Amino acid sequence: MKREIFFILILFTLNISGQTKETENLINQIANDLVPDDFDYYYINPVSLKEQINDSLQYFHLLKLKLVDKEFPIDLAYTPYHETTNWKEYNLKNVKFPSDEYHNKSSPPNSLEVKFIRYNIPEKTYDSLVAIKTPHTLLVKKKWYWNKNKIWTNNNFRTELNKAWEKDKKINIEEKVYFNFSKPLFSKDKKYARVSVKVIKRCNGYGFTAIYAMIKGKWKNLIEYNETKINSFSTHRKCEEIMITIRN
User: Fold this and answer.
1) What per-residue confidence (pLDDT) applies to 14?
2) How many CA atoms lie within 13 A of 221 on its CB side?
3) How far apart are the first and last CA of the chain?
4) Pick from 222, 188, 202: nearest CA to 30
């Protein structure tokens, strides 16, 4: 009896490990297709999306799926699936996770924190510090005699703030967009999978559900449906406006 339980546990562990690997391979492939080529990494919400399946499949979607495979399991597109996961438990490539201090991890925060560094720092040193800085911060050059209490009335500070802002936009492009994925639902034969995706910036973004097929050892996007556009609104400020705070 103990031996039977032991073998059952081994099979269960191997099954879970196989599912994890399949999920990793699929999400890595989706990210490889979606993340811009000039990104060194990308931000992902560690909490997977909860799928909301709508009956928005069109005839041409179904026709395309059947052209790929006459025996395509159409129920894969309609089956309710609400299982979620934590992406931190997976071996995903080139990912970073939003800081725990941000409550909303599905989109970049609308605030940046200023940290001062010495004014006469060499430009190469400054660039290297900007490249490895804490996410969503600005490194602003400051002369020692600038009064922090009156910093916002200092035109020289505002000039340095704008310079830091422009440099940050060019160097840390990855901080401007967050990616969100649902936990994939695989077909029984593991040849197909369904995933929902959202790509969100501070003010806008888009989303869709897609059916993927394993073709010649690589996951390929067959169709996209449930397309959505995402826009952020505020009653008291423009979405494009970024709040700036200064660390004392």
Assistant:
1) 39
2) 16
3) 66
4) 222
18 C-beta neighbours (distance < 10 Å), count: 11
Are the C-beta atoms of 106 and 180 separated by less than 8 Å? Answer: yes
Q: Which residues pair with 209 in a beta bridge?
A: 196, 225
Contact 220, 69 (CB under 8 A): no
Contact 24, 92 (CB under 8 A): yes
Which neighbouring-strand residues pair with 224? 210
- Residue 168: its H or E element: helix 155-171
Structure tokens of 248? 């004392």
Q: E strands within the chain? A: 42-44, 95-96, 111-118, 137-142, 178-181, 185-186, 192-200, 204-215, 218-231, 243-246
Q: How many CB atoms lie within 10 A of CB 210?
A: 19
Rounded CA separation 160/168 (Å)? 12
Between 40 and 100, the more confident residue is 40
Q: Which residues does 100 contact at the CB level (< 8 Å), separation at least 6?
A: none
Q: 53-77: per-residue pLDDT in tens? A: 666 778 888 888 888 888 899 889 8
Distance between CA atoms of 35 and 198, rounded to whole angstroms? 12
Q: Are 84 and 47 in contact (CB under 8 A)?
A: yes
**178-181 and 192-200 as β-strands: parallel, antiparallel, unpaired?**
antiparallel
Q: What angle do CA 100, 103, 109 make, to 5 degrees?
A: 95
C-beta of residue 212 within 8 angstroms of C-beta of residue 201? no
For the entire predicted model, the pTM comes to: 0.83
Cβ pair 50, 182 in contact under 8 A = yes
